[in-house]
Amino acid sequence: MIQLKKITGNKKIYLDLLLLADPEEKAIDKYINDSEVFSLIENEKVLGQCAVTEIDKHKCEIKNIAINEDIHKKGYGRKFINLICDYYKDKYTSLLVGTADAGVEFYEKCGFKISHRIKNFFIDNYDEEIFDNGIQCVDMIYLEKKIK
After folding, report:
1. Is the pLDDT score of 62 beyond 90?
2. Of 144, 35, 28, 38, whose CA–CA distance to 87 is shortest?
3. Buried-state track 110-145, b at ≥16 Cβ within 10 A, e below 16
């Protein structure tokens, strides 16, 4: 059975997973302490990691979400998103996520709609160039999903 487990204590216990979605540890350090961190668990095995931060009393944001690379494209990402939405639906009205161009299609399939864009986010905020599916990450594209 797949379940959501909230991490208490060391929020960077699965740093290797967090680094799949955000390749610089110093970037993760900017939000991890203010985030609630969850693992996606199946049969006691950690499949993924997610960090969620409150924006205001109505919205929260997925700051980081990653699934083990060996199980990509098997529905676990969508399941993780659904569990996160269920967890927060009684507290917030919407959930945001920021991604590069390569992630937009996945989030749209999960029910998110494009909200806004921050130009040159990945160029201005990371020391090294970041590529996702062979495409350089330039702008941060925010998507929003109503969860209440």
Report:
1. yes
2. 38
3. bbbeeeeeeeebbeeeeeeebeeeeeebbbbbbbbb
User: What DSSP line would sit under 49-73, residue for residue?
Assistant: EEEEEE-SSSEEEEEEEEE-GGGTT
Find out whether 138 and 120 touch, Cβ atoms under 8 Å: yes
Query: From CA 16, how far away is CA 28, in angstroms rounded?
Result: 11
Placement of tokens 């993780």 in the chain:
80
The pLDDT score that the predictor gives to residue 15 is 96
* In contact, 35 and 51? CB cutoff 8 Å: yes
Contact by Cβ (8 Å): 70, 43: no
Give the pLDDT score at 33.
95
Q: Does pLDDT of 94 surpass 90? A: yes
pTM: 0.94
Ramachandran assignment for 137, one of left (phi > 0), alpha (psi -120 to 50 degrees), beta (any other):
beta
